[in-house]
Amino acid sequence: MYEVKDLTGEKAIETVDEGLRQYMIKIFNYMGLGLCITAFAAWLVVNTPLLGMMYNVNEEARTVSLSAIGWIVLLAPLFMVFGFNAILMKASASAARWMFFAFSFLMGMSCANILWSYSGESITRVFLITAATFSGMGLYGYTTKRDLTGIGSFMYMGLWGVIIASIVNIFMHSTGLYYAISYISVAVFVGLTAYDMQKLKSLYYASVNDEEGRNKIAISGALNLYLDFINLFLSLLRLLGGDRR
Question: What is the pTM assigned to this prediction?
Answer without folding.
Answer: 0.86
